[in-house]
Amino acid sequence: MKQKQIQTNFQRIETKYILDRAMLARLEADMRPYLTADDYATSTISNVYFDNDEFQMIQDSIARKGGREKMRMRTYAEQPNDDSQVFLEIKKKRDEVGFKYRLVSNPLSVTNYIVNGVADHTISDDRVKAEVEQLQERYIDLKPKMVISYDRYSMRGLEDKKVRVTVDSNIRYRDYDADLASGRYGLPLLDDDKVIMEIKVPGQYPQWLAGILNKYGLEDQSFSKYGNAYLKTKERLTQTVKA
């Protein structure tokens, strides 16, 4: 079985497009000559986002303060448990360039590190630890606050493998029971007919890709899954209080 090399640092331009499935089908047909399925094309992704009870980190990100950081624990396991492989990831953005730093661990070790500041042998990446410590100083009492899960289909460029296109569907979120082992359930983030297509490139779009997007008049949209899940949660809680 081929062993996948794990990349721990990323720097790239990431753009998102909210599409209906009919538009996605047209785009995929036009992109087919230029893209191929990734080595691990189909995946199930579950994330736990860390924040404090006031959700200050995501509020600052929405307000474009600082580096618009997000801290999450991600797994590709279909049925996560305490022994599943997870990534502790720090995402930030500067001048519309996205940066991601991550390390490999397990759910118990990551949660113990973020909540209690106790790092075991799996928490060994100095860059990730430095990023985490800065966020722990800025946002007091971080804990698991939101679960977001979805299905992903991943493609990469035939000529330039650094060009990546992903399609996320069946996106669910919950602001309770923030435990990966509890499974993939929650409220829908988008209408059933909608998906998120994300394009990730190290620099400018290749000419063929820009041409296809221009053909359909598509413009990238600023869309954060966690940000929108937080706003929907806030709206729901406000309506509950009014009722």
Helix-strand blueprint:
Elements: E1 9-20, H1 21-31, E2 35-51, H2 56-62, E3 70-75, E4 86-94, E5 97-105, H3 107-116, H4 126-138, E6 143-157, E7 164-174, E8 187-188, E9 194-201, H5 207-215, H6 225-242
Antiparallel strand pairs: 1-5, 1-9, 2-3, 2-6, 3-4, 4-5, 6-7, 7-8, 7-9
Pfam families: VTC (PF09359)
InterPro entries: CYTH-like_dom_sf (IPR033469), VTC_domain (IPR018966), VTC_sf (IPR042267)
Domain VTC: 11-231
**Gyration radius over CA:** 18 Å
Report the mean per-residue pLDDT as an integer: 93
What share of the residues lie within helices? 25-40%
Strand order of the largest sheet: 1-5-4-3-2-6-7-9
Q: Supply the number of structural domains.
A: 1
Biggest sheet overview: 8 strands, antiparallel, barrel
CATH superfamily: VTC, catalytic tunnel domain
CATH architecture: Alpha-Beta Barrel
* Order of helical and strand elements: EHEHEEEHHEEEEHH
The percent range for strand residues is 35-45%
Q: How many distinct beta strands?
A: 9
Fold and architecture overview:
This protein is of the alpha+beta class and 243 residues long. The protein has a single domain (12-242), classed as Alpha-Beta Barrel (mRNA Triphosphatase Cet1, Chain A). Helices cover 28% and strands 37% of the residues. It has helices at residues 21-31, 56-62, 107-116, 126-138, 207-215, 225-242; strands at residues 9-20, 35-51, 70-75, 86-94, 97-105, 143-157, 164-174, 187-188, 194-201. The chain has an eight-stranded antiparallel beta barrel with strand order 1-5-4-3-2-6-7-9, surrounded by five helices. The radius of gyration is 18 Å and the shape is globular. The termini are far apart. The mean pLDDT is 93.
